[in-house]
Specification:
Layout (H helix, E strand, L loop, with lengths): L1 E9 L2 E10 L5 E5 L6 H8 L7 E6 L2 E2 L5 H8 L2 E4 L11 H12 L4 H14 L15 H14 L4 E5 L7 H14 L7 E6 L2 H7 L2 E6 L2 E7 H4 L5 H9 L6 H6 L4 H7 L3
Parallel strand pairs: 3-8, 3-9, 6-7, 7-8
Antiparallel strand pairs: 1-2, 1-4, 4-5, 9-10
Helix pairs in contact: 3-5, 5-6
The structure holds adenosine-5'-triphosphate and magnesium ion (MG).
The site of magnesium ion has 5 residues, from helix 1.
Length: 265
């Protein structure tokens, strides 16, 4: 997946300014940045849902700017996407929502789809919701079903926009584990999570692309960035972590040097 010098304005107000990054097959990456910095816009441009004003976009070797609608659809069949707003169809049950995605994006038989639904719901511990409608589910349950749906089609690339925002820590952990376990971690697959939570970003992936006001301000291993980067980046990452318990800081894998600097040992 590649964005090269991508810019985008809405009503002459720049939202993305010259964004470039490349994600290799097999990589797992967190796209981090404060609310409104442009994360969802990056994802929509990457998926070809929104055209950039300038720049090049490649998704699995497809030029998503030049591609026809049919070509885009063909590429998107191999992509699992969980939208920020959940995006389940309100008039369909959980089972129907999952089946709809698989019918449109895979060649699975009816039996295969049914087995897949059973297995996915078991993993997300929501087997009893199979015949329920979205309005009968809590926010966290809907989010888990949205993620199950994104993964139901065995996508090569999977993308999750704010998969845990507004959810309690236990549900957030279930969701992160789910993405890790169910995501196709093949040599060609790649996973991308957009979030404004530093904690979620560093728990999800080693590589961090940090966006601020529509610009990439850092791209690299968070363990490096937290110690060696600009003051703004170090500050952004550290202020959101130094309140946590030291045991948890160690569990997250924060570098010893960082712990020594901030926990006054
Ligand atoms: N379709 C649109 N029309 C006009 N402005 C838009 C549109 N989509 C996004 N924007 C503006 O672009 C900016 C970036 O929005 P975006 O949703 O990409 O940010 P975000 O980083 O995903 O934010 P959040 O963390 O709240 O999800 C915002 O100022 C938003 O108002
Ligand atoms: Mg967003």
């Amino acid at each position: 997946m590649t964005l090269e010098a991508v810019s985008k304005s809405y009503d002459k107000i720049p939202v993305l300014k010259n964004i470039s990054f490349h994600i290799k097959p097999g990589e797992r990456v967190s796209l981090l940045g404060p609310g409104g910095c442009g994360k969802s816009t990056v994802l929509k441009i990457l998926l070809g849902l929104t055209p950039p004003d300038q720049g090049a976009v490649q998704l699995m070797d497809r030029d998503m700017v030049a591609a026809s609608e049919r070509e885009k659809q063909e590429t998107l069949r191999k992509v699992g996407m969980a939208f920020q707003q959940g995006g389940l169809f309100d008039f369909m049950t959980v089972e129907e929502n999952l089946t709809f995605a698989m019918e449109h994006m895979t060649d699975m038989s009816v039996d295969e789809m049914s087995q897949k639904i059973e297995a996915l719901l078991k993993t997300v511990k929501l087997t009893r919701t199979r015949r329920m409608f979205p309005h009968e589910l809590s926010g966290g349950m809907k989010r888990r079903i949205g993620i199950a749906r994104a993964l139901a089609t065995d996508p090569v690339v999977s993308i999750f926009d704010e998969p845990t925002s507004g959810l309690d820590p236990v549900t957030s952990t279930i969701i992160l584990n789910m993405i890790h376990e169910l995501g196709t971690q093949t040599e060609t697959g790649a996973q991308l999570v957009a979030t404004s939570s530093v904690e979620i970003a560093i728990r999800f992936a080693e590589r961090l692309i940090l966006i601020n006001e529509g610009e990439v301000v850092a791209d690299g291993s968070w363990k490096d960035l937290i110690l060696n980067s600009t003051d703004w980046v170090k500050h952004f990452l550290s202020v959101r972590l130094i309140g946590i318990d030291i045991e948890y800081a160690r569990e997250l894998g924060l570098p010893d040097e960082f712990i020594r600097q901030h926990w006054k040992l």
